[in-house]
Amino acid sequence: MPEQLPNPYEKFDAHRSEVRVGHGLAWLLTFVFLLLCLLPPFWRNVNQFLQGPNGWTPVVELFRHDPERGTLREHLRKAEGKIENAEYTVAPRQWMQALLTSTLREGNRKTAIGDDGWLYFRPAIDAVTGYGPLKPEPDTVAKDPNREPWNGPLDAIVRFNEQLEGYGAELILMPIPVKPMIQPESLTGRPAEGPISHPDAERFYAALRERGIEVLDLADEWFAAAREGDQVFLKQDTHWTPEMMQATARRVATYLKGQAWFDETWVNAERFESADPLNLTASGDLVDNLELPEGVAIFGEEKASVTPVKPTGGGEMSIYDTGSPVVLLGDSFTNIYHQENMKWGTGAGFAEHLSRELGLALDTIAQNGQASTGVRKNLATRPGAEILIRQKKAVLWAIAARDLFLSETVARAEGVAWKDVEFQDTPLPSGEPAQPVRLRGKLTKKSAFQDPATAPYEASLYAAEYKVLEVLEGEYREDTALVFLWAFRDRKLSTEAAYEVGDIHELTLVPMASKTDLQGINQANDSDRFELVPLWAEKAEGAGPSEDAVERASRTASVATAVFCFLFGGVILGVYRRKRALRAGAES
């Protein structure tokens, strides 16, 4: 036997301490620990199982892989995401975030906390520090070798410009500066001497201009306004203030009015007018991104005064005029003050104010989080795409500058992609159902959408292709329907999000174009059926448990969990007593 090494700490006898735990307490702590580990997943599995075929039972579904619905890797990743997003994890995570935010001013992966209540979007910070648009990220062992090849913004923008030139339209790229670029002092603790930009920004813009693309870089103008005391951004929100938005609309209108084609365009300077300002109070999207518990107000609310725009002669204001010579492609910077679910009013956004300044209605395509590819795809694949683009004089592409400078890893995480689009030679919309159509269909393709917990927007739709099995009411001649459904709202997955390929539903459908309130919401769309008129599912039946069924399942799962706890406690107690009796017998 080798000689045992001496314990070097034995010479410190004066500082030795010993903690003894009795057998009863040890068994009690073990019981509590096991309950904490077992009860939540037990409750969830029982709850989902009781919802029948529409439930998602982790212990079953984890091992149920259908090759027709994706690879094993995709299946396991999807299952892992669903397991991690169990509803019983939400409350502890929210309260922990509230504790860290209130005591240590600690944000999360979406929101960074600056001084004096200023909040910053973390991907916007990453946009000035990463590899950028010209220098590709190196490969590492942590990256998926089978991932889709990455294309940067330069080639995609140049290609898009060439397409528009071929149709006789001018491309105007307007990178919208983001908060860390213009007002970084509350984050860095010191004033900046000029707008902060990515090191490659100047070369990137120069490369675009060399290829004939007009770039309206507003960073210097915005920085000057901030130094003169103007508030350029909302303190708690990612976006610009109403005042900065309106100033930018005037600036862009001045540029457009200076183009030769504008003199040939019919405009009416008095066509639109400003309505009475509205004073609004709300919390910004960066507060929402912290995912604090409901009712916990660490930052309070912010105030803003917005000015709606209306037609001078009365009637409804529209920013979706497909006959306009000017297309506006945008993201949430365009939708804020226009889209009701963004909490800062309606009818008062960038498109409305630019229309008023021009005396001209716009053809607006703006979707939250999709200004890189989504809006271009919408423009190029909508019914009559080639016919409509030939009527355009200018395409104003207003995109958050951060999307242009995100490195590959961050861009993928944020759903920012730079894919080429092809304009489709399809006829103008015709034959759209005047009345709702009800049909029974089989889901054959489902577009992938982002995780609501990490998406940079609070709501999203997704496109699904249905094989038409039977038309129940109305008239529909195609054998396939392109249907949009809710993916999530208020960062909560919808019932429709759980639909799977192979499911059969009864759908009540209306033209997507008739749902103007949904135009600005993020739309995940992987479909290539460009000839189909997009439809919106007003109602979907045949999948997804009812609210009553969910409530019954939850109650029954709670009872089953209580019974399980009682039985498990009985087993632990029985084992403990048995061990104690054996120990007592051995001692006697």
Which key phrases capture this entry?
five-stranded mixed β-barrel, 18 strands, five-stranded parallel beta sheet, alpha/beta, 19 helices, 17% strand, OB fold (Dihydrolipoamide Acetyltransferase, E2P)
In short:
The protein has 588 residues and is of the alpha/beta class.
Physical arrangement of strands within the biggest beta sheet = 4-3-11-9-10
Helix count from the secondary structure assignment = 19
- Report the helical percentage: 25-40%
Mean pLDDT: 87
Model regions low in confidence, pLDDT < 50 over at least 5 residues: none
Largest sheet: 5 strands, parallel
DSSP, total strands: 18
Share in β-strands: 15-25%
Helix/strand structural class: alpha/beta
Name the shape in a single word: globular
Report how far the terminal alpha carbons are from each other.
Answer: 35 Å
CA gyration radius, whole angstroms: 29 Å
Characterization of this structure:
The structure is a single chain. This protein has 588 residues and is α/β, with parallel strands linked by helices. 35% of the residues lie in helices and 17% in strands. The relative contact order is 0.11. A hairpin with a 5-residue loop joins strand 1 (111-113) and strand 2 (119-121). The chain has helices at residues 23-50, 58-61, 72-84, 90-104, 122-126, 153-166, 179-182, 185-188, 201-210, 219-227, 242-257, 285-289, 332-335, 350-358, 374-381, 385-389, 401-405, 408-413, 547-587, and strands at 111-113, 119-121, 170-176, 214-215, 272-274, 278-282, 302-306, 309-311, 326-330, 363-366, 394-400, 437-446, 460-473, 480-489, 492-493, 504-511, 522-524, 535-541. It contains 19 helices and 18 strands. The strands form five sheets. A five-stranded parallel sheet has the order 4-3-11-9-10. The chain has a five-stranded mixed β-barrel with strand order 12-13-14-18-16.
